[in-house]
Amino acid sequence: MMLERWIAGLLLLLVGIFTNGLGAFVGVNIGTDVSDLPSGTEMVAILIAHQITHVRLYDADAHMLRALSNSGIEVVVGITNEEVLGIGESPSVAAAWVNKNVAPYLPSTNITAIAVGSEVLTQIPHASPVLVSAMNYIHKALVATNLNFQVKVSTPQSMDVIPKAFPPSTATFDPSWNSTVFQILQFLKNTNSYYMLNAYPYYGYTKGDGIFPIDYALFQPLPSVKQIVDPNTLSHYNSMFDAMVDATYYSIEALNFTGISVVVTESGWPSLGGSNEPDANVENAQTYTNNLIQRVLNDSGPPSKPTFPINTYIYELFNEDKRPGPVSEKNWGVLFTNGSTVYPLTLGTSTPTGNSSGPFCVAKTDADPDKLQDGLNWACGQGQADCTPIQQGHGCFLPNTLVNHASYAYNAYYQRMQSVGGTCDFDGTAKTTTVDPSYGSCKFASSNSSTTGGFTPISATAPSSPVGGWSSNLKVSQLQYLIPAAFLPLLLF
């Protein structure tokens, strides 16, 4: 048995080495405060369909861990905040937790890390005195089961532990936490683990009193007169995300630690907010998430650590409608529970679909629905766009929303007709974007794949009433889980 476990451990270690050598990854967090939460098997099917190779769980749910068996997906399991105190006060409780929630699932379930609590210092400060003890006890339990080389231990912290994150070069941890943070960093250094950071430019922007422009938070280009520069290092920061990560590296170095990498365990943007949350909308969420994915997968680090890739977990897989708080708190998900995307994006480890020959023409998310419907009908009718892909049963039907269908139709028309005078306006309901709106198997045409054929120029402004016999079918479809046939055998064993 010991020999089998040693061999399994060696295989997992080799997998980890080769995986790290392949460059940065984008994973997702899976929260479970969801009314219609899919089963573990269904969730794994969705993950595989979207080529998601890394997930973080907030607990150690047995059904989910069994479902992930033999999937190849790397898993971070979580010790809940409610469990931290008990584990931090008792080595035997820590050992029992590892023996119940980690050891039985390896190596078939590829558990690679344990996150001890979530933002313990700022969310449950009363547990902070035993946080490092909990980490040590869990690590010792892993050593006792010969799993310490495969499974790292860390603890996610928010940016709130760094009270002044800009300029990054002068950032330091909150002095009131210095003793605990020093012990955390010492543990990470001793065990060759990494610092887990929850970084949210959404909050950095919305709570920033207008100090930084929203484009900076969304990874969008800034004009030359508005470049964000650290006055001490003269480093240029193209995004708030990079500045947050760099501020963390500088804070770590301020406590005289080096060689500890930063992994972003949470980052995202809500797609819906209340009346007092105007920046929580689909357009910003799509822009942020797609740009985040592209940023992470370019394999570079922040200015102070350009060779340190920023592995990142998107927050989060599904909208958690049961979460308390403002509307935005319930709308961070990138997928619906049927596996379709909340907005067009490309997940997984492959480079996001993009085309430098854009732009693309998409519907405005805040456009008048009646005008959108008119524009959609016109594009698919008189505009002669090929709208077959957004018919039910075809690759772009889901998500079954007016904005998604109109975006596809508008772009299909625009790419076909722009070279002969077609425009992207549709009575003010459309706009151009350089972000490729393709997602999954739904591919939006680009200028280098479009053809003008024998059509004559047509104005792209939609008429005031529907034209033509085509109409979008917007009835709610039955749940359609994206389970590729090739992966079905995986899920049955």
Description of the molecule:
By secondary structure, the chain is of the alpha/beta class. The protein is 32% helix and 11% strand. Helix 8 (178-190) links the parallel strand 6 (157-158) and strand 7 (195-198). The chain is globular and about 70 Å long. The protein starts with a helix and ends with a helix. Mean pLDDT is 85; it is low at 1-21, 349-357 and 450-493.
How would you summarize this macromolecular structure in one to three sentences?
This protein is α/β, with parallel strands linked by helices and 493 residues long. It is built from 15 helices and 13 strands.
- Percent of residues in helices: 25-40%
Separation of the first and last Cα atoms:
22 Å
Annotation field: number of helices: 15
Extract low-pLDDT stretches: 1-21, 349-357, 450-493
Topology:
Blueprint: H1 2-21, E1 26-30, H2 40-49, E2 54-57, H3 62-67, E3 74-79, H4 81-89, H5 91-101, E4 110-116, H6 120-123, H7 131-144, E5 152-154, E6 157-158, H8 178-190, E7 195-198, H9 201-206, H10 214-217, E8 228-229, E9 236-237, H11 240-254, E10 262-267, H12 282-296, E11 312-314, E12 360-363, H13 369-380, H14 402-417, E13 430-433, H15 488-492
Parallel strand pairs: 1-2, 1-11, 2-3, 3-4, 4-5, 6-7, 7-10, 10-11
Antiparallel strand pairs: 8-9, 12-13
Helix pairs in contact: 4-5, 4-7, 5-7, 7-8, 13-14
